[in-house]
Amino acid sequence: MGEKHLIVSGLQLWQWRNAAFKAAIATDVPTIEVDWLLLEVAGLDRLTLALESFKNWPQIQLQLPLQELDQLWQRRLNERLPVQYIAGVTPWRQFKIAVSSAVLIPRPETESLIDLAKASASNTSGHWADLGTGSGAIALGLADVLPKATIHAVDYSLEALAIAQANADNLGFADRIKFYQGSWWEPLALLKGQFSGMVSNPPYIPTSNLPTLQPEVVNHEPHLALDGGADGLDCIRHLIEISPNYLRSGGVWLIEMMAGQVDTVRELLQNQGNYCNIQIHADLAGIERFALAYKS
């Protein structure tokens, strides 16, 4: 495909944007997504878009042909394909993280896990685990705030790991993060008892709730990363049960969960017998979303 397919006039792009706005309004998609997409695929900035000053530019370089962009935008409107998958990236903390339909799109509320990990870390070096790494977002966040630590990131999906590895390479953390294919702690058996902390955003949606999620989520994001079993707590139960074998004394256990799961998770941690100083933290919206405990 020649480069010429990727060049459009400012007027062409302006016309496409106006049509995309109208279609978004008609199908109840936020119009802001049109401009977010153009920031990514046309390299325009917010001011240029707001002033529409690109309208008179003789040419604009796109990252994909306008026809293809339009086809993807139609899928956004008709099939509810998430805009992050169209752009292939999403902002998360200070990073721009590559995503595809092989990984869950990292959510802004999950960013708080990194701040909690940093605040809870008495040992900022040592080994930390990100279990179910997906796009690698949590591993990258940990590597960023714990510059002396080695991060071990695990995922069951090879497709997800390829994206996570690419993100680590692109953002300069390749030497700090090690990636493993497998289920939860299993690939890290050689480091049993040595971890200073583990962080996870596991699947926590009850299976029966999946059909009620937004079509963007249920039709396009990987169910492996969403489905937490009958009550949504299958993976969290496993992590509560197994993690004490891997954490050192005082090691941090930290996960994200769903609103309404807090009492059960607290009880499971207490009953397991190997955790102390169990804490529940709310996200920025005030929803109790994070559970933190230390191995006693």
Structure write-up:
The protein has helices at residues 10-27, 32-41, 46-51, 66-78, 83-87, 111-120, 137-145, 158-170, 215-218, 234-242, 262-272, and strands spanning 7-8, 60-61, 89-92, 95-98, 126-131, 149-155, 177-181, 195-200, 247-256, 275-282, 288-295. It is of the alpha/beta class. α1 packs parallel to α4 (66-78). The chain is elongated, with a radius of gyration of 21 Å.
The gyration radius over C-alpha positions equals 21 Å
Question: What series of H and E elements makes up the topology?
Answer: EHHHEHHEEHEHEHEEHHEHEE
* Strand residues, percent: 15-25%
Largest sheet: 7 strands, mixed
Q: What topology does this entry show?
A:
Blueprint: E1 7-8, H1 10-27, H2 32-41, H3 46-51, E2 60-61, H4 66-78, H5 83-87, E3 89-92, E4 95-98, H6 111-120, E5 126-131, H7 137-145, E6 149-155, H8 158-170, E7 177-181, E8 195-200, H9 215-218, H10 234-242, E9 247-256, H11 262-272, E10 275-282, E11 288-295
Parallel strand pairs: 5-6, 5-8, 6-7, 8-9
Antiparallel strand pairs: 1-2, 3-4, 9-11, 10-11
